[in-house]
């Protein structure tokens, strides 16, 4: 399959015009980009703008329902839930961004090598990926964190490892169908090494579908990391993190203190929702034919 | 017929490398423990002598390859080690708790299939209508919902606010007796015992966790049903059936749905992977005494033998489920050859 990509020099506004067109056609995608900016803002400046110290306890002020001083109420130790929710954004996004970045890089390298050279490397890689996929992925992540030790870094590694198969398979397929394509052979004939051909001529074609995968995967990585800390792995109290805050709030929901669990859960849900909507939107931009 | 037997044989043979891989990964996980595995397996109360005992018992003083074969030998005898917190062999613990998890998982899957498949069919038939939009919203919201959070919300609304649901503590309210154990599924066992009251109580406890899990699995099944149904409805045989003047119901269900179901069955394999993971979280929220909450308790207590046993058991369960799905696929679809994949 040859792709008619925009040539930057000749049609400078082609890609932008298409992007603007898609955004105008699909307000939901626009909304998702807006929400993404909202979360980025919290991640970068959250710690500076929150009204209270997220770690400051105040027993006299425990379990206050939402009011004007504490917009999201206070938890069992009197900490301000709003400040904690906002500050937690950075940690949650960092975990998932790092995890997705690691699986993106490792998956790309493995997939590109297997797709370009094929043969026994390809066969071995496929077997290994099959084996990883033979585990229920969240359960495998639990096992890895339990074995490596209960730290935030290991949460990142575990989340990265269970996502590698998705990237490796995607890149392998995209590289494999272009291995013998005219432009790849031309690049070889004009004296590029195998590595150069693979890295600069074939691999960039896999990037658009990879971007879609990254966005969809980010949501899943956040869910996964929050799930792990919900069951008590990785992040330790009193660090603010959405999963552990929901877990703490779960103890108070039966007595009607809904705000302790609701707001971190809501933020978590919104973040995942944003990435999923963005993934769908990016898919429309990248490949209009695959729209569902 | 010979072709099909061969295909099934091939599929069975394909599981062998996967199982070997699973065992290798699980072996690596047991040996990857930071520090000395013997210290972890001996437990917190162990002294130097018992640690040495454990080291010899586990064969940790031998070369790695020998250790691997010892490990495989133990597995073949069903020996997953002993749990520190319960004092029981891990396999016994898992076997005792597995029915609780399976009852929850299976009822959730049945419920979500009952909702998702009609929804997906309707969305495909009435493309662009409100049902289609509802389906799309549900699908995107469904994959964004953290299961543990949905569970907590449902508890708040239906237990605290409305008082419809019983307290989210386990499989059966403490005022009822467990039904005599035959299958381990309380729903089935209470029916066998003819105890309708216990059956109703079990059902009440089961409702909220089942809905929580079902909401989560709804999305992929509905999405796949819609896509498969759209593809089936646009194919030549449907056009022919329409041209031949068959009734609408016959076309939709006799031809369309029957063909669309095949990819849906395949998706179930992937859904199982998610469900088995989500199960752990839901069990923690509802204090459900299944293998998921067993693993969580073991994690908190640093009970490594129990955790590794759990991971391995889940992997075997998942491989078996996938095998059953693929084999049933071969029985449903007469055209099947596994080599077409």
UniProtKB/TrEMBL annotation, chain A:
Protein name as annotated: ABC transporter permease
Record localization: Cell membrane
Keyword annotations of the record: Cell membrane, Membrane, Peptide transport, Protein transport, Transmembrane, Transmembrane helix, Transport
Membrane topology of the entry: Multi-pass membrane protein
Transmembrane segments: 28-50, 93-116, 128-149, 218-236, 256-279
Domain of life: Bacteria
Main location class: membrane
Entry-linked PANTHER family: D,D-DIPEPTIDE TRANSPORT SYSTEM PERMEASE PROTEIN DDPC-RELATED, OLIGOPEPTIDE TRANSPORT SYSTEM PERMEASE PROTEIN APPC
Organism: Marivita lacus
Entry's family note: Belongs to the binding-protein-dependent transport system permease family.
One Pfam family this sequence matches: BPD_transp_1
InterPro entries assigned: BP-dependent_transpt_permease, MetI-like, MetI-like_sf, OppC_N
Residue ranges of domain ABC transmembrane type-1 in the record: 89-279
Automatic annotation (TrEMBL), chain B:
Record-given protein name: ABC transporter permease
Entry similarity comment: Belongs to the binding-protein-dependent transport system permease family.
CDD domains: TM_PBP2 (cd06261)
Pfam families: BPD_transp_1, BPD_transp_1_N
Subcellular location: Cell membrane
Naturally occurring in which organism (per UniProt): Marivita lacus
UniProt entry tagged with the keyword Calcium: no
Taxonomic path: Bacteria, Pseudomonadati, Pseudomonadota, Alphaproteobacteria, Rhodobacterales
Gene3D superfamilies: MetI-like
PROSITE patterns: ABC_TM1
Record field: transmembrane: 12-33, 104-125, 137-162, 206-225, 260-282, 310-332
InterPro entries linked to this entry: BPD_transp_1_N, MetI-like, MetI-like_sf
The keyword Lipid metabolism is annotated on this UniProt entry: no
Residue ranges occupied by any ABC transmembrane type-1 domain in the UniProt entry: 98-329
Topology of this chain in the membrane: Multi-pass membrane protein
Keywords linked to the UniProt accession: Cell membrane, Membrane, Transmembrane, Transmembrane helix, Transport
